[in-house]
Write a structure and sequence with these properties.
By secondary structure, the chain is of the alpha+beta class. Helices cover 53% and strands 12% of the residues. Among the domains are: 141 residues, Beta Polymerase, domain 2 (2-Layer Sandwich), CATH 3.30.460.10; 86 residues, Hydrophobic Seed Protein (Orthogonal Bundle), CATH 1.10.110.30; 49 residues, no CATH class. The protein is built from 24 helices and 15 strands. Helix 16 runs antiparallel to helix 17. The longest helix has 25 residues. The termini are far apart. The structure holds cytidine-5'-triphosphate (CTP).
Length: 469
């Protein structure tokens, strides 16, 4: 089959190859995506001989300013040209030691290079050699697998996944990204090799998980991770949510599948990766708080609070960043039950103000999460919940317009307190600040300087402080 490679870059390479009597092929993701009609700017070239040498020749033809980045240890070279990233590597064959992802590499032929690739759809190559320019080299029926939407390994799947266990994650990620299915023998081999995922660095795992998160239906990835036994190893907290217990004829919902539905609901609304993590993890506190009360049935009291406390250890294990994104996810998990408590007609303004204060700028994301959390199959119930949430949103807007709590900065701060009473930083400053904050949130005083100042004077007096004149 002929592939239409029209960019100038390919012709430049063909000219060099023909002059130097070398051989070069486009391989991997670019060919796959080209055939799928997904434009890509990352192009991998495999060369019979030195990839670095060819890269240098290509760069000099493309222009004086074009630079080559050489990675000698890997035998690769990279050129950034316009918005392309061109990577050159010599054809190689690989073998692996049991306890490592690092292969022993030797020079090889194009066929050997294709064999060492992860999936048949990623082993497709296109010739850039003058005698058969544009010809698809497809020794493992990758084209057929592309048509049938199948992820399959060129060699025995057991060897492929055991050699490089990252490929287990990649198989699932590609399946979800491309809406393919992972072939049965692969699924079996992944299950058998699942423990080897432990030798992959956290960064690599999270990279794949985040790619799954970026798809339209990330739940499919988590279902496959579960099916292949990988989930229990990389995210045991999620795996623990699986299953339904029944006592005295009463069961609870399966919290794993519920969380996946919430995740898909969120993915349909936003690209915010951290909101997706919050959706996936919002109920992780349920298994450890599960309790059966003969009167009321299944309860999960405090799962919001406990869940938020569990998030840092998940982030640490997965090597997710521990800064503001972690705090954001923790906050959403901790507050995810709060908006529903504001549904009552006679809820006080104070409760609304407190939620605005605690959620701050993340209040809208919290509401999005709460709406996604409605996964009932009963349409009437869903409609009722959504219209109740509309009322909550209305209340939030009204109170915010009135009291400006969202980015609440107390109108009287520590500096003013210390200056007024002529004191240094001490416990009393914190006590006064807190009393002012609570009074504003409870609506006992308005959110303005004069009322806060008066309260400060009165509280100071009760604490035995005197203003300096
Ligand atoms: N590859 C592999 N095994 C891996 C990683 C990569 O065999 N663990 C091969 C595949 O042939 C792949 C190519 O190297 O197509 C390039 O890898 P990479 O850039 O990671 O993947 P792409 O296929 O380009 O896709 P994506 O950019 O979506 O990751």
């Amino acid at each position: 089959m002929q592939i239409n490679l029209s960019d100038k870059i390919f012709n430049v390479i063909t000219d060099i190859v023909s002059e130097k009597k070398a051989a070069c092929y486009v391989i991997g993701g670019y060919v796959r995506d080209h055939l799928l009609g997904r434009p890509s700017k990352d192009i991998d070239f495999v060369v019979a001989g030195s990839g670095i040498e060819l890269a240098k020749q290509v760069a000099s033809r493309l222009g004086k300013k074009v630079k080559v980045n050489v990675f000698k240890n890997f035998g690769t070279a990279m050129i950034k040209y316009r918005d392309y990233e061109l990577e050159f590597v010599g054809a190689r064959k690989e073998s692996y030691a049991r306890n490592s992802r690092k292969p022993i590499v030797e020079n090889g032929t194009i066929e050997e290079d294709q064999k060492r690739r992860d999936f048949t759809i990623n082993a497709l190559a296109v010739s850039l050699n003058p005698e058969n320019f544009g010809e698809l080299i497809d020794p493992f029926n990758g084209l057929e697998d592309l048509k049938n939407k199948i992820i399959r390994t060129p060699l025995d799947p057991g060897t492929t996944y055991s050699d490089d266990p990252l490929r287990m994650m990649r198989a699932i990620r590609f399946a979800v990204q491309l809406n393919f299915s992972v072939e049965e023998y692969s699924l079996k081999a992944i299950f058998e090799n699942r423990e080897r995922v432990k030798i992959i660095s956290g960064e690599r795992v999270i990279d794949e998980l985040n790619k799954i998160m970026a798809t339209h239906k990330p739940s499919q990835g988590y279902r496959l991770l579960d099916k292949t036994g990988l989930l229990e190893i990389i995210l045991p907290e999620l795996h623990a949510m699986k299953g339904v217990d029944v006592k005295e004829g009463k069961g609870h919902k399966d919290n794993f599948y519920h969380s996946l539905q919430v995740l898909d609901n969120i993915a349909a609304k936003t690209d915010n990766i951290w909101l997706k993590w919050a959706a996936l993890l919002h109920d992780v506190g349920k298994p450890p708080t599960k309790y059966y009360d003969p009167q009321t049935g299944w309860t999960f009291h405090g799962h919001d609070y406990l869940g938020s406390k569990m998030i840092p250890s998940v982030f640490r294990r997965l090597k997710l960043p521990l800064g503001p994104n972690l705090q954001y996810v923790q906050k959403l998990v901790k507050l995810h039950l709060r908006p529903i408590a504001l549904i009552d007609e006679d809820v006080t303004d104070s409760a609304v103000r407190r939620l605005l204060f605690e959620a701050g700028d993340d209040i809208d994301d919290l509401m999005t999460l709460c709406e996604a959390d409605i996964t009932s199959k009963n349409d009437a119930k869903v409609r009722q919940y959504l219209s109740n949430f509309k009322l909550v949103r209305k209340k939030l807007v009204e109170i915010e317009e009135k009291d400006h709590i969202r980015n609440f900065q107390p109108p009287v701060d520590g500096e003013i307190i210390m200056k007024t009473f002529g004191i240094q930083p001490c416990k009393e400053v914190g006590v006064i600040k807190n009393i002012i904050k609570e009074a504003i949130l409870d609506g006992k005083i308005s959110n303005n300087y004069d009322e806060a100042f008066d309260l400060m004077l009165n509280t100071g007096k009760e604490l035995g402080l005197k203003p300096v004149s």
